Amino acid sequence: MPSLSMPGLRALSASSARPFIGRIREHPAPAACGGAPEILLVRPPTQSLPPGFRAYLLAEPSTGVSVPDAYVLPPGLQPLAEGDVVRVEPSTGRLSVLYRRASLSNSLLVTERCDNYCLMCSQPPRKQDDSWLLDELMELIPLISPDTRELGITGGEPGLLGVRLLQLVEQLKMHLPGTAIHMLSNGRSFSEEDFARRLARIRHPDLMVGIPLYSDLPEEHDHVVQARGAYDETVRGILNLKRSGVRVELRVVIHAFTHERLPELARFIARNLLFVDHVALMGLELMGFAKTNLPRLWVDPLDYQEPLREAVRVMNRAGLSTSLYNHPLCVLPADLHAFARKSISDWKNVYFPECEGCSLREACGGFFASSALKRSRGIAPVLP
After folding, report:
1. Which pLDDT belongs to residue 47?
2. Which residues contact 195 (CB under 8 A, 6 or more apart)?
3. Is beta strand 180-184 parallel, antiparallel or unpaired with respect to 4-7?
4. Domains along the chain?
5. In angstroms, how far is the first alpha carbon of the chain from the final one?
6. Residues 374, 328, 367, 223: is their CA dihedral positive or negative?
7. N or C: which end of the chain has fewer CB within 10 A?
8. Is 60 in contact with 45 (CB distance < 8 Å)?
9. CA–CA separation, 354 vs 245, rounded Å?
């Protein structure tokens, strides 16, 4: 999940001049944390706060607080818990949740810069120096629970970070060797063979790079990403990563510019990129540019069932691991249900009133919260 941020943090005592991050503790007994900054979460009102913590977050106001950096939490904040990591900005009264230990959808935003300008980008790029994001992530990673199953790396385009991206992956390998890392990238930076080799030489035990490929035709891919020559660099990036031993997932977002040639794209992948590790065919998230360009991009999933079915059939017969993401089961043909995954991040996921009584609800991934902007005419409960 990206940083969730809320204003309204109120200082009860002398506060720090600069923002800081810390790991939430729910118990006043100091943990054996090796000097990691810890922030005590205080739920019931109290007159006495134990010393030794980096800061204190109180669910309710209290009087007579004598320790520094004690704050009252803003109303409406999602519940914090042991092991979560937050950023406190005393000057603005803002609290940001950088990592939730209980979530299966944590991701690390490394930059908002990008060299593509995709028509359906859910997080439109920004041209600014945001190197502080990576500085903060280097502090954050040692505070993340080593039991975390998976972390995402996202942007913007991570490849634009160059050597600093390699340092980030090394940091993840050092502190979280048992955590799978899924990096979203447009692949273009890895068209430089040496960069792909250097990423491979880190030998992260569980790293996959997810790269979008939107058409078998270069001009169609370049139009979707709004960057001339991007197709050639992306394909070279895929080849270089696989040649170096890095796992690669191909990602195809389905919309009005991509759905008709899905079978042709599937045949291209099966003939030329059979060595990739996974192919993800993804429904559209109506955020960012996708929301702005909705009239141009929207196509009801009911109207691309046949090209989707044919694409899955081609890749499945070729032995490619293939999944459907962000598609509720009621808008998919029954023979594609086995390929559908519950993929929508927990903090974005919703179900509609029509889902009540559906026999497939437990297996279904539901909808993006943004789906309320435009909904398939096929949404309906599947009855037993």
Report:
1. 67
2. 159, 162, 189, 240
3. unpaired
4. 4-99 (3.50.30), 107-373 (3.20.20.70)
5. 35
6. negative
7. C
8. yes
9. 45
Distance CA 287, CA 28 (A): 41
**What is the distance between the alpha carbons of residues 184 and 201, in angstroms, rounded to a whole number?**
19
Whether this model's pTM surpasses 0.70: yes
**pLDDT value at residue 31:** 54
The CA-atom distances, in angstroms, between 382 and each of 157, 249, 300, 323, 372 are: 39, 31, 18, 21, 20
pLDDT at 348: 65
For the CA atoms of 99, 103, 107, 109, what is the dihedral angle to 10 degrees? -40
Q: What pLDDT score was predicted for residue 347? A: 61
Residue given tokens 């999944």 in the structure block: 323
Task: Give the list of residues 6+ apart from residue 79 with CB closer than 8 angstroms, or none.
Answer: none
Distance between CA atoms of residues 81 and 102, nearest Å: 8
Q: Give the integer Cα–Cα distance in Å for 79 and 95.
A: 12
CA distances for 278 relative to 305, 308, 324, angstroms:
21, 16, 11
What digits encode the pLDDT tens for the residues 190-203?
999 999 999 999 99
At 134-179, the pLDDT tens digits run 999 999 999 999 999 999 999 999 999 999 999 999 999 999 999 9
